[in-house]
Amino acid sequence: MSRTPRPVSTRVRFLGAILGVVLLGMIIAGGVTFLVQSERVVANAERQLDGFDSTLSTSSQDAAALVAATIPGRTDGTVALDGTRVLATTPAPPGLSVGDDAGLVASLADQISLGNDRGRLDSDHGPVLYAAVETRGGVVVQVISIDQRMELVTLSTVTYGISALVVLLLVGVAGWFVTGRLFSPLRRLRDTTDAITIDDLGTRLRAHGNDEISDLTTSVNSMLDRLAMSVDAQRQLLDDVRHELKTPITIVRGHLEMMNPADPHDVTETRELGIAELDRLSRLVDDIDTLADVESGALEAAVIDVGALTDRVAELAGAIPGHTWTIDQRARVRIHGDADRLVQAWLQLADNAAKYTPEGTSIEIGSTADDTTAHLWVRDHGPGIPPAARHRVFRRFDRLSTGRGVDGSGLGLSIVDAIAKAHDGHCTVGDTPGGGATVALHIPVTGAQSPAELPTPVRAGDVVMQREATG
C-alpha cells in the first residue's frame, strides 16, 4: 500500500514536543534562579551600604583618615570628597579605582549637592550603588560595582545553560530510542494491516504488555475476527445463492431448448414452468432482502404486550388451511421489540409447522414468560425434528429431507433466527409430548433493542451482480 509522504513523522513530532517542554522548563527555572540571585546580590550590596552609613555616622574622625583606615573589597571602593576634589581614596587594586574616574566623581558631587545620599549611577565600571556620609573635613562615599558583584551569578547562569544543553541533548538521544520502542508496536500494526487482503484475513497481531497499545492490538485482532466472519458469511451466502439460482435456471434453459415452437401446448407448458421458476427466484430475492434488513438491525423498537401479540399471530395463522389452530397459553408480560418483525418470525414458525405436518392435525400457538425471558412458541404433532438435525434447521438454504416435496427458499428459519438475535434473543427446537416439534423464540423481557454481532448484511442485488461477474 502506498502512503502519502510526511514531512515530519509522528515520532519526531512527539520527541520535539517533549524536548520543547523540557527546554521551556529549563528556561523558566534558569530565569527564575537568575532573577532571585540578582535580587539577592543587590540586597547584599544595600545591606553593606547600610552598615557603612551607620558606622560613619557615629565616627568623629575626619574624612581622609576614615578613608585611609578602610580596607576595600574587590567589588567596592571608598573616596573622600570635598566638592569635586578628591581628598583620599582606597587603593586599587584590590578595590575599585573610584578617584581616577572623573566622570563618576563629578556625578557623585552633583548628587551630594542635591541632597541624594543614596542612589545608583553609571561609571567606567558599569552601574554602581553608592552611599555618602558627611563627616568632619568632607564627605565619605562608598561605591559598589553591581557588575562585579554579579560575576558569580553570571558564571553560574552560563554554567547552568551549558549543563541544560547537555541534559537536553541526552534527553533527545534517550527519547529517540524510547519513542522508537514505544512506536514499534504501531509500526508492526501498520505492517500487519498492510499485509492483510480480502483473500487472507488470518494474520493476527501479538499483544505485548498491559498498556493502551496492547489494548489497541487486541481491539484490532477482534475487528479482524469480525471482518473474517463477515467475509466468510458473505462468501457462504454467495455460494448458497449461486447454488439455489442454478437449479431454476437449468430447468428453464432445458425446457426452452427442448420446447417445440410449433406445438402450442408445449409452448404453454414451458411458459408456465418458466413463470413458476421466475416466481421462485423472486421469492428467493425477497427472502434475501428480508434477511439483510433484519441482520442490519433495522428494527422499530416499542413496548409490546405479549398476550395481545399471541392473539394476533393466532388470528393470522388461522388463515393457513389444512390445520386446526388453537391458543394454548398467553403470557401476561411486556417486552421491547419490533412487533411486526416478531409477528413475521412467529408466523414463519407457524407456516413451517403447517408445511411439515400432516393435514388435519392440530397446531398450538402459545406464549409464556419468567422473570427474564418471554417464550413465543409453536407446537405441532408431526414427525418432529431429529436431535441430530436441530442445529442445522436455522442455517441458510438448509432443508430437512422429509419426502413431502415442501417448496420454499430455505431461508425461512434463518430469518426467524436473525430476528431473535436482533432482539438479543435466540431460538430453540424441542420435542412435543406424544410426537412432533416445538419451536420457540426466546426474547428478553427487559432487554431493549441492541445491535447484534451479526455478519454484514448482503443485498440480493449485490449477490446477483457478483454471481454475474464470476460467471
From TrEMBL:
Report the subcellular localization.
Cell membrane
Q: Which InterPro entries match?
A: HAMP_dom, HATPase_C_sf, HATPase_dom, His_kinase_dom, HisK_dim/P_dom, HisK_dim/P_sf, Sig_transdc_His_kin-like_C, TCS_sensor_his_kinase
GO CC terms of this entry: plasma membrane
- Superkingdom as given in the UniProt entry: Bacteria
EC numbers, comma separated: 2.7.13.3
* Example of a GO MF term: phosphorelay sensor kinase activity
The regions listed as transmembrane in this protein's record are 12-36, 158-178
Enumerate the spans annotated as HAMP domain.
180-232
Reactions catalysed according to its record: ATP + protein L-histidine = ADP + protein N-phospho-L-histidine
Main location per UniProt? membrane
Domain Histidine kinase: from-to ranges:
240-447
Q: What is this protein called?
A: histidine kinase
Organism this protein belongs to? Microbacterium testaceum (strain StLB037)
Lineage of this protein's species?
Answer: Bacteria, Bacillati, Actinomycetota, Actinomycetes, Micrococcales
